[in-house]
Amino acid sequence: MATRMTGGEAVVDALKANGVETLYAIPGIQLDHLFNALYGAQNWLTIVNARHEQGVAYMALGHAQSTGEPGVYVCVPGPGFLNTSAALSTAYAVRAPVLALIGQIASTAIGVGGGELHELPDQTAIVKGLTRWSGIARTPEEIPELMQTAFAKLKAGIAPVAIELPADVLKAAAELPPARPAVAAAPRAPIPHAVTRAAALLAQAKAPLIVVGSGAYGGEAALARLAEHLEAPVVAHLQGRGVLPSTHPLAVGFAEGQRLWGEADVVLAVGTRFHEARRNWGERAGLRVIRVDTDPAQFSRGAPPEIAIEADAPLTLAALAEAVAAGPAKSGRAEAIAALKAEIAQAFATRLAPQMAYVRALRAVLPAEARIVADYTQIGYVSTAAFGVAAPRRLLTPGYQGTLGFAYATALGAKSANPDMPVVALCGDGGFLFTGNELATAVQYGIAAIGVVFVDGAYGNVRRMQEELYGGKVVATGLTNPDFVRYAESFGAKARRADGPEAFAAALEWAMAETGPTLIEVPVTTFPNPWDLLEP
């Protein structure tokens, strides 16, 4: 039965119907009628209002990355929306299920160029460029369908998405049907003939190699069966780490992958852009490639694969595992793979000893279910390769976007979505202050994320490059920092300074025992260059 409601009430109705329990939001005049509707939703909806628009967007990102469920944020148009663009582009890079509800000026003023408050020349075009689907509500009657479409897209892995909400449309009332939860389309099964061809190619391979990304989430068990039957090492980078647990004998990183690539005769790439492997290691003549992805556009990037399977990755992995199981299991590579893993582990331990001391402390203290949010800082870089990950969504990175400063606010979203799991943001002093003001939000809402700031007084990675590659011409990389312990305490958070890895481990134990937000400041010196191991 239709009910008379405003556009703002229709948005709230759709949030409830789709199970949204947390909304990251900053109010503003174009959103007044939405927030008026949100007032009555506070018995089922937690509204987290941050201190900067980038904060709400990063929190939605952390919520989405750490759970796989929609992370929803609200912002005003114009400068408010633009402040969220770095986070939204990061969500695009990692395909995080983020829904951006973006205010707009009055629908009658869009495109007129009259200089309305927060008006952009073409906000809609910018929104389209940062999302995989977007819409704009021109009337309140359009809102229920737009909201349902947005949630359906997210369920289908089309992410991030956005809806623009003009101020007058949020105010206007209409007879509207009750919101219905979005239903995801059935995942696309692979074509049997393609599975048969791929399985035959893998079965005849002498040195098969599997490369996985976040598109393989949900296929963990099938991937393990397939890899074990083929005795095929599984390379995971950034978002793909944890699809096969780091402790599995066949789980390898990028450094091992580079060596294995040279001897591989068949590569199965599942749910990955496959860009870093092809860019760094080359598209070798004679290498036979099978690719699995829901996005067929991926198949045309780089050399075309011999077999392209446009289908759901978990279903395809299960079908491949079943198909190859009909033949004999492969053997004979386990010893060489174990030796290679040991060699690379030793290289990390010796050549990157200062960074690895902190990474080992993290792994020793944190439980397996903890979430690590790795910013673009030395310990973050090395953690993306060397921190043991037991399952997907436990190592959060900005993917190829490389968004400096994303980690702390993203960790707040991850922690608010996973209140019973430790969440640690690994930041440098160059990136922490991008969103360090959100300590105020953490204290206000009791979000007990652990922030770690490694302090070397510089944009350290850039400074080292200037020293090593440009003859010591150091420019614009020095930093003047606050006392980070006192900075955190000024917001009402608890903080400690930790000098060295042992003190850092003790500080982590302390922070995990606290019930509110904490910060650990770790003074460090220049670290050795990690890049030949991280991106060989």
Summary tags:
about 525 residues, alpha/beta, Rossmann fold, 3 domains, six-stranded parallel β-sheet, about 15% strand, acetolactate synthase activity, TPP-bd_CS, magnesium ion binding
Task: Describe it.
By secondary structure, the chain is α/β, with parallel strands linked by helices. The protein folds into three domains: 3-176, Thiamin diphosphate (ThDP)-binding fold, Pyr/PP domains (Rossmann fold, 3-Layer(aba) Sandwich), CATH 3.40.50; 192-338, 3-Layer(aba) Sandwich (Rossmann fold); 352-534, 3-Layer(aba) Sandwich (Rossmann fold), CATH 3.40.50.970. The chain is 42% helix and 17% strand. It has 23 helices and 20 strands. The strands form four sheets. A six-stranded parallel beta sheet has the order 3-2-4-5-7-6, sandwiched between helices. The chain has a six-stranded parallel beta sheet with strand order 11-10-9-12-13-14, sandwiched between helices. Helix 10 (220-230) links the parallel strand 9 (208-212) and strand 10. Helix 1 crosses helix 2, helix 3 packs parallel to helix 5 (85-94) and helix 10 runs parallel beside helix 13. The longest helix has 18 residues, at 334-351. The protein starts with a strand and ends with a helix.
SSE topology:
Layout: E1 3-6, H1 7-17, E2 22-25, H2 32-38, E3 46-48, H3 53-67, E4 71-75, H4 79-83, H5 85-94, E5 98-104, H6 123-130, E6 133-136, H7 143-155, E7 161-166, H8 167-171, E8 173-176, H9 192-204, E9 208-212, H10 220-230, E10 234-236, E11 251-252, H11 254-263, E12 266-270, H12 275-281, E13 288-293, E14 307-310, H13 313-324, H14 334-351, H15 353-365, E15 371-374, H16 378-386, E16 395-396, H17 407-417, E17 423-428, H18 429-435, H19 439-445, E18 450-455, H20 460-469, H21 484-491, E19 494-497, H22 501-513, E20 518-523, H23 531-534
Parallel strand pairs: 2-3, 2-4, 4-5, 5-7, 6-7, 9-10, 9-12, 10-11, 12-13, 13-14, 15-16, 15-17, 17-18, 18-20, 19-20
Antiparallel strand pairs: 1-8
Helix pairs in contact: 1-2, 1-7, 3-5, 3-17, 9-13, 10-13, 15-16, 15-22
